Amino acid sequence: MRFPFVLSAKIAAHIVKHKLKRTPRFAMVLQLEPLHTCNLSCTGCGRIREYSTSLKDMVPLEKCLAAAAECDAPMVSICGGEPLIYPHIEELVQGLLAQKRIVYICTNGVFMRRKLVDYLASVYDPGREPLLKELLAEGLITEAQAATIRKGRANGKPVIAPTKWLYWNVHVDVPVQPLGGGDDRLAVRAAFANRRRLGLGDEPLGQKLLE
Ligand code: SF4
Questions:
Q1: pLDDT at res. 122
Q2: Is 45 in the pocket of ligand 1 (CB under 6 A)?
Q3: pLDDT band for position 175 (50/70/90)?
C-alpha cells in the first residue's frame, strides 16, 4: 500500500472533524516554502525565475512553525526552491512532526543522501554494522559514506530521522547548470533512478531504514 493506513485515518479524521463542525473551507495540505533559492537551475523551472527578486529571502523557523500551527492542515509539503538548503530544515521537520503533521520534503535529491547519512551517523554504534553491510551490499550507501557514518556525529546537531510520517518527494526538471560539480550530476541521476524505481520518488535508503 502506498499510503499507510494510519496516515489515511489521520486525514479522514481531519475531514470528518470539519464536516461535523460544518467548516465551509479547510486546508488539507500546507505548501510551505521556507526559501525560494535552489542549488540547481533547471530548464523550464518557473520557480527560480518568478521569484528571482526574492531568492535570498528566508522565512524564519518560528514563522514557518507558526504558519503550520495556524493552518492546521494534516499534511505539510516543504517546497522551495530547494528545502534541504534551508539552514533550519532539520529543526523545521522536527517541529512539524512534533505538531503531528505528515511531512513531505519536495527535493531535487542532491542533498537527500547526505541528510540520511547524517541520521545514520547520529545513531551509529558497532551493533549497527550488519545494517551498514546490508546497505553497502545493496548500493544504498558508498564506502566513503559508511566511513563517515562510523565516525558518528558528536556535534549534537539535529538530524532528519526516517519515520512513517515523513516522505521524500524527488522532483527535478532537466538540470542544465548543477552547481557544485560532478557530484551534483551523479546525485540528480540517482534521484531520477530512485524515482523510476519507486514510482513517486520516495527515497530507497529512507524506505530501507523504515523496514
Ligand atoms: S530543482 Fe526544482 S526548484 Fe530547483 S531549479 Fe530545478 S525545478 Fe527549479
A1: 93
A2: yes
A3: very low
Domain boundaries, the chain: 41-51+59-210
The closest-lying atom of ligand 1 relative to the alpha carbon of residue 171 is 2
pLDDT reading at 174 higher than 70: no
Whether 188 shows a pLDDT value over 70: the answer reads no
- 29 CB less than 6 Å from ligand 1? no
- For ligand 1, the distance from its centroid to the CA atom of residue 23, given in whole angstroms, is 36
Residue with cell 473551507: 25
Q: Which of 31, 52, 82, 168 to mutate to test the pocket of ligand 1 (most atoms within 8 A of CB)?
A: 82
